[in-house]
Amino acid sequence: MAVPCLLDNLIKLLIERTFIVKPSNFLKNQHTHNVYSYGPPGALLRHNILQEWRRYVLYNNNEETFWVENSKSITAETPSDTRVGVEHYNSSILHRCPENYLVIAKQLSKKLSFSVAHTSVCFDPQRTSGENLSFLESSENTELTVTHFCPSTTIVSSFSDCHRRRLKWWRQYARFPSNFILSDPQQLNVNNETFQLFKVQFHFPWGWDTIETIINWRDYPLQCIKDVLLSGISAQSKIRRSASLPCVIESTAILERAFLAFLLDSFQENIHTYSKSKTRSESKTRSILKLHRRLVPYKIGVSVSGSKVSYLRKMALRIIKDIEDLELQVFHCLDTTNSLEKQYVMFDELGVLLTIVINDTTLESGIIGLRSRDTSLKEPLHVATLKDTILKNIQ
Description:
By secondary structure, the chain is an alpha+beta fold. It is built from twelve helices and 18 strands. It has two domains: 4-21 and 33-72 and 91-234 and 243-264, Bira Bifunctional Protein, Domain 2 (BirA Bifunctional Protein, domain 2, 2-Layer Sandwich); 298-394, Rossmann fold (3-Layer(aba) Sandwich), CATH 3.40.50. The protein starts with a helix and ends with a helix.
């Protein structure tokens, strides 16, 4: 399948700006499983996506959610196990789900409804990849999973609420929310039983593809511990005969898919026309990543331009320290050999929200320039009001 030009251009930008990093020829010969690794901006973007997902499941969910960690990664039984959207039953739910339920319901004495969230690395040694898609279709994927336990009487409403809220979560970070949709209900057949699922899909250059799957498992994963759950009730009791097990809803997203989906959604190419003379002009294509303010790797950029280089750098370092005290990631360019225009191009390709411009005038008057990524406009303001202005613009 030919990869569309849009994806080619995006991957070229990601490599140039070190979102993803190709290994050297030496490392390629060391039997590495991933053709690509993640550079500083790519690692920060992955971290921010994971943080937003974790914040949602732990603090913005409608019920109590518990975070657990797996001590080891999962090895896929078939190459399709690592891909969201392939109707292949991941048998690991039979091990994780009963164990998590027993720990929380029995030992912590928690009553329904509640959820368990965790991440896990799924590894498939048989997986092979194409040249361009190898950083996405690697042999190693990070699964973001939430398992919801609820009474059988509320499973229908809980399942409906779950897939609606998950679609809303994806769309709130999108530049074009219509790029994210919810599929029609589908069926998953496992051991002669049928389960309903929905998929959150993104409009990739090759078509609609799955980024998250939400499955209604009913009580299937807990059947293996039914006797343990009902151990306190007599076998002849009417209560035991009519008792029902908790039901399970599981949503699983793939971090690598989310990484590419948000980048594609934010990627924009603009044609700028420059006048080289009175009779001649030249057009150039400029790329920009308009990532959501909560996902962008670097919220603030610092640029220096002027002749008093040493003084400008000292002032820039003080400003950077003040911004980092706000726990914001800062990308700075203190090399005055590059023109401001080239620095703006670099900041736009990194998705930097706001760029602070320091020049010789700043040393005399304390006035700096604050450039917006989304409007390309630069407004003057005094350095004393900088922190308040930044907080106002990024929140």
